[in-house]
Amino acid sequence: MRAHLSDRIGAALLMAPLLLFLVLAYAWPFLGVVKWSFTLPTPGLGQYNALLTDQLVQSVFIRTLRIAAIVTIVSVAAAYAITVVWVRGTPVQRVVAEFCILVPFWISVLTRAFGWVALLSNRGLINTWLQAVGFISEPLALVRNEFGVIVGMTHFLIPFAVFPLASSMRSLDDRVLLAARGLGSSRMRTFWSVFVPMTRSGIIGSALIVFVFSLGFFVTPAILGGGRSVMIAELIYLRIFQSPDWGLGAAISVVLVLFVGALMALLFRYIRPKQLV
Amino acid sequence: MPTYRPGPVSLILAALVALFLLLPLLAVIPVSLTPSRMLAMPSGELSLRHYRALIEDPRWINSILLSIRIGIVSSAFSTVLALCFSLGVWMFQPRFTAALVGFVLLPMVVPPVVSAITLYFLLTSISGFSSFFGYDTWLGVAMAHAVMTVPFATVLILVSLSQLDRRIDLAARGLGATVWERATRIIMPNIKFGIVTAALLSFVLSWEEIGVTLFITSVNAITLPRLMWMGLRDNIDPAIAALSVILIVITVLVLVARSVVVRLRAAQ
Fold first, then answer.
1. Does residue B251 contact residue A103 with C-beta atoms inside 8 Å?
2. Of these four, A219, B95, B159, B262, which has the most CB atoms within 10 Å of its CB?
3. Residues B175-198: pLDDT tens digits?
């Protein structure tokens, strides 16, 4: 009954609802947030000026970049170790590795952060055990600081770092590795001089994904940092809800989007997104 | 041809990473069995009181029911929108497809906290007109979740469409099928697995959504993650440990069942 309609109208009718929904419920309010950043509390560039001069905001930006960098290096290295086994191990090793990657991946960020609280807090598993054995008399401060944040974020992001690495390791030609071994290269040397360089695109892709994710991370730093290791996302939350300064919260959001946008542009140069259509 | 297997050093490092990944999930088990009212390791006796609290305390039940309701509504909404959009893209291949798909994927790539402040702006604006649809209402949360999950649903449906043979659609078209018939009787039956997966993933993402939910709820629309968050920030409630154990067990069971099904299919 719609056969007589031209293709263009058909496409428009099918695609319009979602596009309209996202324009109204996402693009328009985002422009509203941008407007806040220029108008609250007074019109002008005052909030962006504050970003450049405010000591607290700057220390939060620097802390976020530092934590994101550390988390990126640790997560990619850890993900690399387990991905090697997931992709190249024996069938049994593969099943075990897959289980260890996918179970945490599907469990919510809150449950995982809580698991670290249960392990690291003063009356948590690790401190209780160390005290029982007699290694320490006072509980170690493992949580409510930057260490706890880094541990929790690394744990959250390892599975995300695994996927680009896995695809680069899968597409790698076995014969090259066997040739290197056949020509007398040791296991170590084959790994570092042949295997790792051939997975370069996977390493870059996974590092960028982890870094971008870490920049906007909210839940884990808020729980494991305990308010003492505030990152950008939590600062936005605090500016909106605790010391109402919507303009500053909005300005930080705009800067964060621009920064992440630039990084994403870099990411797409290295990982060609699969042609979907 | 022999394959290149990881050596002992690789295996040891991978085992350490695996331990790191599983440790916090295992740690919640003893905590959930503590008889104490605060977060602590059980010393001596074990107790199921925190599991009982989950059933007896109406706050937990209410938030679970609310999360299910929001999950179903937002998942249905985002799956239908994503399906229509993807059908349009696949059947008509309009110009500017890449730009349009890129736009739809934005909520997936923009930092969640920025989406959160955006949706906060949206819902507080709506609250000016309507009291049952806006900030801190369940419909408002469902809509915000739909914004966040629709990119994932779209990706899944587009991927399953990309594996579909265009010739069956061309044949239907050549035989005089209308757009409606092609969509509902030719294309959709062939991608039903993708559609169901999209709906399930949307539900799961809504069920565990916390970053955005924190910005758009305060006292009325307390979803399960929001309630967990409240229990985690102040005095840590061991009922969260009991709930975590249940969620972890469900996840493990679903993943094991899925891999058994995949293996059985492969064996056939």
1. yes
2. A219
3. 988 888 999 999 999 999 999 999
Best residue in A110, A128, A228, A259 for a mutation probing chain B (most B CBs within 10 Å): A110
The secondary structure of residue B185, as a DSSP letter, is I
Q: Which domain holds residue B83?
A: 61-237
CATH number at residue B218: 1.10.3720.10
Q: Chain A residues with CB inside 8 Å of B7's CB?
A: 187
pTM of the model: 0.90
Candidate from A11, A222, A250 with C-beta closest to B117: A250
Across residues B85-100, what is the average pLDDT?
91
Q: Considering only alpha carbons, which residue of chain A is nearest residue B229?
A: A110
**Identity at B152, one-letter amino acid code:** F
Q: Is B228 inside any structural domain? A: yes
Nearest 5 degrees, angle CA A10-CA A16-CA A22? 160
| B 201-230 → A contacts, CB under 8 A | 204, 208, 210-211, 214-215, 225, 228-229
Is the four-CA dihedral B48, B50, B53, B54 of positive or negative sign? negative
Query: How many domains in chain B?
Result: 1
| Domain positions in chain A | 1-39, 54-270
